[in-house]
Every structure is written in C-alpha cells, then in structure tokens.
Hints:
- By secondary structure, this protein is mostly helical.
- The chain has helices spanning 3-20, 24-27, 35-39, 41-63, 66-72, 77-104, 109-122, 132-160, 166-203, 205-218, 224-241, 266-279, 286-294, 302-324, 329-349, 353-381, 387-416, 419-447.
- The chain is built from 18 helices and no strands.
- It is globular, with a radius of gyration of 24 Å.
Amino acid sequence: MGRHQVRRDVLSQARAGRQSSGHCDRNSLMLETPPAARKSASRNVYAFGATSFLNDTASEMAYWVLPAFLASLGAGPAQLGVIEGIAESVASFAKLFSGYLADRLPRRKPIVVSGYFVANLVKPILAIATSWWHVLIVRFVDRFSKGVRGTPRDVMVAESVDRSRIGSAYGLIQAMDSAGAIAGPLAALLLLPHFGLRGIFWAAVVPGLLCILVAALGIRETGGRVSKENSVSQTARAAIKNPLASPTLRDSAGASISWWRPHLPGSFYYVLVAVTLFSLGNSSDMFLVLRAQSIGIPAKHAPLLGLVFNITYTLLSWPAGHFSDRFSRRAIAAAGYLVFAAVYFVFGLAPSTLAIWLSMASYGLFYALSTPVLKALIVETVAVPVRGRALGVYFFVTSVATLLASIITGELWKHYGPHLPFYVSAGIAVVSALLLLVSRRKQTDAAA
C-alpha cells in the first residue's frame, strides 16, 4: 500500500470517527474547566476585574484631559484626530494578531501582564511631553498594548470558569471596567484644580502600578489545556509524517478527530455578519454628545452624559452576563440592539432634553446587554483551540466597521442634517437584531 493511500485512509478514519461521535472534534475539545483550575477560577475572574478597574481608572484620568492638554501644546482638533485614528487602528490590528498568539502559545499570562506593564509604563511620559507627537507615541504604545493583551485575557477568562458561567464572568469584568471609566474622570476632576494637567498624569501612575501588581500576583495561568490540545496537533502531524506508526488519531477522550485544527464554524460567521452589520451603524458616542448639545444641553454637561451612561453600564453588566448564562445569548444581545435602536430613534427625534437624559441612561443598558454577552456568545460558538482566533477576528472586524460608521454618520450629518444619521443607525440595529435571532434558528435547525 502506498504512502499517499495510507494518508488518505488515516484522514477517512478521522472523518468517520468525527461524524459517528457527533462532531466530537468540536464538542470534545470544548472542555470544562479542570478541577484544579476550578479552585482558582473565582480568584482569576476577580483578579481580572480588579486589573480592569485599576487600568481603566488610570487611562480615563488621562484620556478626558487630553484635548485640553493638546491645546496647551499648540495642537488642535486635526492633531487629536490623527492621534486617535492611529491609536484605534493599531489596537484593531493588534487584537487580530494577539488572537492568533492566544491559540498558539501554551502560556498567556506573560502576554497579558506585559500588556498592562507597558501601557502603564508609558502613561507618565505625558507629564513631560512637550509636543503633540509625544502624545501620539504614548497613545500608540498604550493602544497597541491594550490590543495585544485584550484577546488573550478574554480567552483566559473563558478558561477560568465553567461554560455555564462564562457570561457572568465577562459581565463582572465589564462592570469593573466601566466602574474605572467612572472613577478616572471623577479623580481627574478632583485633582485638576490642585495639581493641573501634568499633575493628573503623574497621579495616574498610582492606579497604574497597582494594576501591574494585581496582574502579576493575582492572575493564574490557564494554559494547561492548550498544551493538551497542542499535543493532539503534534500527534496529528506525526501521523501524517509517519502514518503506519499511528493509523488512527484520537483525542483525550479516545474519540477520532481530524488532524487539522478546528475551523471557525458557520454559527460563528452567522453571528459575525449580524454584529458587523450592526457596527456599521454604531458610530462614535461623540455624535450623541454633539446631538445633545445641538438641542440645548450645555457643553459643560457632556461629562455628566457620560457619567449617567457609565453608571447604568456598571450596574447592569454583571446581571446581564449572569442572565445570559441561563437564557439565549443571541436573544439577549438582540434585545440590546433593540434598546440601541430605541435610543437612537429618540436622539433623532429629540423631543426634549429630558428625553435625551433618559435615553442616555438607557444607552448603558444597551452596552450591558451586548458587550459581555457577545463575548460569551463568540466563545460559545467555537471550539477551545480557536477561541483566540475567533475573538481576534470579532474585535478586528467590528473595530473597522465602527470606524466606517463614524465616517458615514459624519457625512450623513453634513449633507442631510442631524436627524437622518440616527434614524439610519436605528434601522440597521433592528435588522441586526433580527439577523441574530435568525442565526439562532438556523443553528437550532442544523442541530436537529
């Protein structure tokens, strides 16, 4: 029997075993958290939550005073646009790259800790900056570090808990993250009269250092199962190289599997299409602030709009994630999209300033129902070995779509006035919600 014929027989046996075991290459690799890891699961989730809170506190202290600081350096809106555009673009590509790393490397903690370390190491440079391009360098490194650590962190979170608690874990971390988005600006407001702009940058060192310490000492590695999966891949490669020595490929449960790493399934792409379409209507939140100002809310109240939104976001993120562990995540995310549609419809109609304030509070509900829930949904739809790749693709595609959404919204506002962009975004959100529900039906039909 020829070498190539043996290879074909090996692959045929792997495919037959996969089909007879009910797609075991996906289900058998979607392992529950091992007992040893389960003991430290809660600690890991709380450690990630604490690092998110401290890091966001440090970042938001500096972020909200950057426009004023750039003005003091002689820079204007054009330079601010260049800085933020480059920073967000590099973050998107870094997330895509880090997703690949998260699937390939057996230890992810060094990537996560390094991301927090580098980001908080460069922030104090703002205190001694003398030109706008110094700010550009800091923002570039900061956002790149966030992109690199973000996807491995989310994969580690999913590995730190049972599948039945993934939504709750993401919800808790998101709540702590948005709590930092409240604490940071409040700290900056309290410190600004006494220490000035550069003093705030120095003060941000304190939560930044605490973040690094918690990340280094509190987070536990979760890469044990990756090593097992990599060993399966190594066995597969060995079988292809020498098929007579290992005619059948099996996973740790003894079921036949394919020699290749699992591909991203169709259910993932169904979700990705719906989320990408929605992101094309989800422009920068600054357009909400501009719309509020256009109907009479003073510019000085803009931070209060953000505060109202973040309070709701913080209070509801954990319950929403917990709720998604018990009910359909697609339905909950679709409900979030419908809340978004209602908020944007009110902003387009703009009946009163009171309606704007109430809508801004409801906007936090949209984020709570979508951000942590969609992460859990993405993790749920793919096999363990490709979670990083799936999250990286998700973050990258939605980031690019959101950037395009801001351009589209700006052009619609410019040519047709402030009403149409919000109506268009509301309509896109409704269609996206329906697509999420349809993707659920298709997956259910396929499973049947």
